[in-house]
Amino acid sequence: MSFSFFTAWHNNCLIILHYFLQKSLEFIDTENKINEVEEITENIFLIVSNCHEFFDESSEKTQLWKDTILPIIIQISQMKLKEHASLSNRFLFKYMDIIDSLE
Q1: Which residues of the chain, if any, have pLDDT below 70?
Q2: In 2, 35, 49, 54, which residue has its Cα 20 to 30 A from 11's Cα atom?
Q3: Which structural domain range is residue 78 located in?
Q4: DSSP string, 45-97
Q5: What's residue 51's pLDDT?
Q6: Tell me, what's the pLDDT at 97?
Q7: Please, what is the Cα angle at 61 between 16 and 67, to 5 degrees?
Q8: How many domains does the chain have?
Q9: Per-residue pLDDT, 58
């Protein structure tokens, strides 16, 4: 029973992370969405920094982490402030912190 609970929790975390990242990508190019982007980023940071060790385990579901979520996190961390309407230094530094928490 606990294994199926863990598996469902793990899958839901990955789905939520993917959703948050997609919303971040959408909002960073929309005017006046800095607050929303920063709030979403805080949630992403909390989930990744506290749960990433579970995402690295070998399973079919972790492919979402390795093939989709992690590349988006890296992509966002390398964005340029001037190229996006609702991008802030705080946002970029938080993504750099996310990357650091994975090492």
Answers
A1: 1-10, 56-61
A2: 35
A3: 2-101
A4: HHHHHHHHHHHTSSSSTHHHIIIIIHHHHHHHHT--GGG-TT--HHHHHHHHH
A5: 80
A6: 93
A7: 80
A8: 1
A9: 56
